[in-house]
């Protein structure tokens, strides 16, 4: 497999195909599925075929004269002019594309499925997860949750109390490119100057002259512009135009102090359902995740993620992952799909495997973007193999385009590393592959000193290394 110089460029996503981890089972539907049919006689019902329910109107099944219950009407998939759930829905991501504009004159599911390898930290196994951009070819299915939660007081420490305080500081972001393509994601208020933090992949369509809007739970909608975006970190900052004076930034927590088992609260717009609140726990820390947007020219995104079982679906991307006190500990970014299938085949929504960028890393990136408009990446100045491995991150024999694998005068060179060395630890974190190493490096800032453990000729060595820096433009 080809390699990239980690220190000089943001490497592409690994090309290994994801491993399917099962297909969702079809759950029984309708009242009969509950095993509790009505026991009292029921009045006869006219036999005309019932009209299809209007969108947004709950389906109310009625029994036939013989007491049997009809099946519920089929729910069209996204792209058929209705909500999620049909066979064509492209589930398995955290970014939701809205309905195409009427001028397109055509419906149909349009999904760009992004596949990346997830290396299970400590296990060395390769898991597949899918990032998908779904398209609803019919009318809008966005349903805004009631903002009445902000009007009702709940006891401190309850989920309702945390949600009531956090919801007014979250926004639903709609991004549209110059050719009309785009999607919906989430963001949250970062400061009182109108800066909103979200994912790069949420706003990518609007970077070059596109349209960007942010809508608050109370219905206020503002035009916005991209201040800066970091594709490698998958973090972006946008700024509201004519920002209101009453913005309340969300408090930022300390993701380094998060423990497995801590409660989590996620806020976002899954499948366009704005202001949705879900809960769970921290399932794991330092979970290496690598992804790309699937294009041939894209650069990879790497993160040492917080894993949560809070329900995260397309449209949750960029939204805050909160702790029990309401402080932001991460930015929801990706989920694992139950299948690596293509356009809707065997795909699902949340299966309890969501991944968030730790807020300590995202905060640093956001501050750099606000300050200079450009991200700054920590680097070691060495090319590492991106092939799946359980042994560590191997420094390649040659870098990109024939360049040296170890940059002369770079951090790795100064630390005495050479081609063929296999890095197995960064500080106290086990490194089982190149992507894992990059994700861990990017949790640090340029200038940080790290302890590197590596193997050479079967012998283990340790050395201290000062990380370098590289300014990126995406």
In short:
The chain is mostly beta strands and about 475 residues long. It has five helices and 24 strands. The two termini are about 25 Å apart.
Write the layout of secondary structure elements.
Elements: E1 4-5, E2 95-96, E3 112-119, E4 126-134, H1 159-166, E5 170-176, E6 182-189, E7 195-198, H2 200-203, E8 211-215, E9 221-230, E10 235-240, E11 263-268, E12 276-291, E13 301-308, E14 320-322, E15 328-335, E16 354-358, H3 359-372, E17 376-379, E18 383-384, E19 393-394, H4 411-414, E20 422-426, E21 429-430, H5 434-441, E22 449-456, E23 459-466, E24 468-471
Parallel strand pairs: 2-4
Antiparallel strand pairs: 1-18, 3-4, 5-6, 5-8, 6-7, 7-10, 8-9, 9-10, 11-12, 11-14, 12-13, 13-16, 14-15, 15-16, 17-24, 19-20, 20-21, 20-22, 22-23
Beta-strand proportion: 25-35%
- Point out poorly predicted stretches: 1-63, 65-149, 340-347
Instruction: Give the class from helix and strand content and strand pairing.
Output: mainly beta
Using only CA atoms, what is the Rg?
24 Å
> Judging from the principal axes of the Cα atoms, what is the shape?
globular
Largest sheet: 6 strands, antiparallel, barrel
Helix tally equals 5
Give the averaged pLDDT, no decimals: 73
Oligomer: single chain
Number of strands: 24
The total number of structural domains is: 2
* Strand adjacency order, main sheet: 5-6-7-10-9-8
Going by CATH, the architecture of the largest domain would be Beta Barrel
| CATH fold group of the largest domain | Thrombin, subunit H
